[in-house]
Amino acid sequence: MTLFEIESLTYRFNRITALDGLSMTIPAGTRIGLLGANGSGKSTLLRILDGLYFAESGVVRFLGDALTEARFGDNEFAYGFRRRVGMLFQNPDAQLFNATVFDEVAFGPLQLRWSAADVRARVMDTLERLRLAHLEHRVPQRLSGGEKKRVALASVLVMDPEVLLLDEPTDALDPRSQSQLIDLLMGWADGSKSVITATHHLGILGDIADRCFVLDRGRLVADRTPADILQDEDLLDRTNLIHVHRHRHDEGHVHSHPHLHDL
User: Fold this and answer.
1) Alpha-carbon distance 246 to 55, whole Å?
2) Which H helix or E strand runs over 259?
3) Helical axes 101-111 vs 116-129, angle rounded to 10°
4) Residue at 245 is within a domain
5) Are 158 and 122 in contact (CB under 8 A)?
């Protein structure tokens, strides 16, 4: 079953083209990696898939329904879409606005009018899974960057969406927190759900994706498996995902090594 279908998608910020005639198909129940350097269009694409931006030209469909402003004017469609699709922003401050961590994670379930007991149980279970229970009474805005990111993710996961859109989920996380987050996402995406992750961190690619789309200046330049992408140094160099350092030894010999970008 096709989850998202994107045809000739173009989107501009003022006069700057962020996505340029982009076409791709994303099947349901898959783990997708969106790769690209800063400015490649990854974040813009995720926002369009989340119904926050809308195509200037071309079309984006979710399970056959075109994602347009008019379609989101239908409350029944909008409610169903928001229930099924959740997004983690690159900057967690864009998502955090409640007085405590508990209130932040409980906000979504309360909008669905779950019972108080159900809300409490679901929120605490989610906080435990993300190792945040000890912070439930803290003010989110006063947490560290990594803690903020995990709280923002908890506010999405508590809704148990069918589709998870992640914009640079491991940014601002220490190595242990990165590992814990990846383990959580691998367990959560059990084949019945879909995870689309925008990243430029190639080291996590094999753990988070079964299929990769590489974007460069708003265009799709590759659609392959993670292993194929990681073996193509020329592609990674051209799309600014790695850079090559050249070294000269005392005897005059020059050789080069590829290095991953940490943009």
Assistant:
1) 42
2) strand 254-260
3) 130
4) no
5) yes
Percent of the chain at pLDDT > 90 equals: 65
Residue partners of 35: CB distance under 8 A and separation at least 6: 42, 199, 200, 202, 205, 212, 213, 214, 215, 229, 239, 241
Per residue in 221-233, pLDDT tens?
A: 999 999 999 999 9
Domain of residue 219, residue span: 2-240
Among 50, 155, 154, which Cα is nearest to 107's?
155
Query: Looking at the 3D structure of the chain, how many domains does it have?
Result: 1
Task: Specify if 161 maps to a domain.
Answer: yes
Tell which phi-psi region holds residue 133, choosing left (phi > 0), alpha (psi between -120 and 50) or beta: alpha
Q: Check which CATH number belongs to the domain holding 124 and give it.
A: 3.40.50.300
CA dist 104 and 88 (Å) reads 14
**Among 157, 216, 170, 227, CA closest to 197:** 170
In Å, what is the CA distance from 208 to each residue of 17, 104, 128, 195?
28, 26, 22, 8
Q: Token pair of 72, please?
A: 């989101």
The sign one gets for the Cα dihedral 56, 59, 63, 64 is positive
Global pTM value? 0.88
- CA pair distance 148, 172, nearest whole angstrom: 9
Q: Would you say residue 253 lies in a domain?
A: no
DSSP H helices in the chain? 42-49, 69-72, 75-84, 101-111, 116-129, 145-157, 175-188, 205-208, 226-231, 233-238
